[in-house]
């Protein structure tokens, strides 16, 4: 019944998510502050998964009217638009061309849009392109490798519920062995219906940045200042855990 801090570390994203879920379910108020989840990538830079866990979770999310894990992940990085064999400018161009359509799919949460178009008007900045251009020009300052999502000009509102952005910031850290660590910082995070997709999306973003830097994704770390169970009923999540454990 530890309500924090809690650290979960694994080499399988499905197992890491399941352990995080069980930890949240075990607390009296179903929340942990903070929850830190670390998932190590395999030798190809991918996150190992259990298809049964993801399929079972997606099925439950669909029943409740929530988007599947991969849809959540695409709000952080649109893998379907990225061709690693092409210049990264192609990705940004394709995204901008489809932006209006993607807003309807991911309204109001469009994390990738904040990463490539932060701010407003003539001062708006493509943070990812700025980071990568500076790095390739020889700037080795580690503090360069971070991108913000939360924008106080837009996000400090009087709305009782807003829902975006939970992801505050992303940082990238080259580590030993020619690897990249990607770190996502969430003020709050829903474990039942968002966390799994968040882990996948951070990994996708990390693979993109690693590719552009000529290295490989090594691990994903997700820090939730406050991890909440989420929008699915406790009973349903307990039933899902039992179903997965029985497999």
Write up this protein.
There is one protein chain. This protein has 247 residues and is α/β, with parallel strands linked by helices. The protein is built from 9 helices and 7 strands; from the N terminus they run E-H-E-E-H-H-H-H-H-E-H-E-E-H-E-H. The protein has helices at 13-25, 51-63, 69-74, 88-105, 111-116, 127-136, 152-155, 191-213, 234-246, and strands at residues 6-10, 31-32, 35-40, 146-148, 167-175, 179-190, 216-228. Strands 1, 2, 3, 4, 5, 6 and 7 form a 7-stranded mixed beta sheet that branches. Strand 6 (179-190), helix 8 (191-213) and strand 7 form a beta-alpha-beta unit. The radius of gyration is 18 Å and the shape is globular.
Class of secondary structure makeup: alpha/beta
Quaternary structure: single chain
SSE run? EHEEHHHHHEHEEHEH
Total of helices:
9
User: How many β-strand runs?
Assistant: 7
The global form is globular
Distance between the termini: 25 Å
Radius of gyration: 18 Å
Q: Give unreliable regions as ranges.
A: none
Helix content: 40-55%
Largest pleated sheet:
7 strands, mixed
Q: Kindly state the mean pLDDT as a whole number?
A: 91
Strand composition percent: 15-25%
Give the secondary structure arrangement, pairings included.
Elements: E1 6-10, H1 13-25, E2 31-32, E3 35-40, H2 51-63, H3 69-74, H4 88-105, H5 111-116, H6 127-136, E4 146-148, H7 152-155, E5 167-175, E6 179-190, H8 191-213, E7 216-228, H9 234-246
Parallel strand pairs: 1-3, 6-7
Antiparallel strand pairs: 2-7, 3-7, 4-5, 5-6
Notable traits:
alpha/beta, single chain, seven-stranded mixed beta sheet, 9 helices, 7 strands, 247 residues
């Amino acid at each position: 019944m530890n309500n924090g801090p809690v650290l979960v570390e694994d080499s399988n994203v499905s197992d890491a998510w399941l352990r995080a879920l069980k930890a949240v379910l075990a607390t009296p108020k179903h929340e942990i502050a903070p929850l830190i989840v670390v998932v190590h990538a395999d030798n190809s830079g991918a996150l190992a998964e259990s298809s049964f866990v993801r399929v079972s979770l997606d099925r439950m999310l669909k029943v409740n009217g929530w988007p599947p894990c991969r849809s959540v992940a695409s709000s952080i990085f649109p893998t379907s638009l990225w061709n690693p064999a092409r210049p990264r400018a192609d990705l940004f161009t394709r995204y901008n061309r489809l932006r209006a359509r993607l807003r309807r799919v991911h309204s109001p949460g469009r994390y990738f849009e904040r990463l490539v178009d932060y701010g407003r008007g003539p001062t708006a900045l493509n943070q990812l392109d700025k980071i990568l251009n500076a790095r390739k020009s020889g700037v080795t300052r580690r503090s360069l490798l971070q991108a913000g999502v939360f924008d106080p000009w837009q996000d400090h509102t009087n709305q009782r519920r807003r829902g975006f952005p939970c992801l505050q910031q992303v940082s990238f850290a080259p580590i030993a062995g020619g690897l990249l660590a990607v770190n996502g910082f969430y003020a709050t995070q829903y474990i039942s219906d968002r966390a799994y997709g968040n882990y996948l999306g951070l990994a996708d973003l990390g693979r993109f940045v690693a590719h552009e830097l000529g290295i490989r994704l090594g691990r994903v770390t997700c820090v939730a200042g406050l991890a909440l169970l989420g929008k699915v009923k406790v009973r349903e999540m307990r039933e899902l855990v039992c179903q997965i454990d029985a497999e």
